[in-house]
Amino acid sequence: MGYMIWIGAAVTVLGLVGLIWCIATVARARAAGLRDEELKARLQRVVAVNMAALFVSAIGLMMVVVGVLLR
Hints:
This protein is mainly α. The protein has one domain. It has two helices and no strands. The chain has helices spanning 2-31, 36-70. The longest helix has 35 residues, at 36-70. The chain is rod-shaped and about 55 Å long.
């Protein structure tokens, strides 16, 4: 089950890349000095990507744990 550990690690890294993208996008939006409504609209779009990235990274970590337990 060693392959499951590596696949899970890759999936976790994909989730982390998504989280880093969300952080960078929010930082750029805040630095742009937008009005409240515009900033809120941009942040609402990022929330969906943020939740998906958290889900992907959690699934990847679960795959790693299962791979370790089955090894």
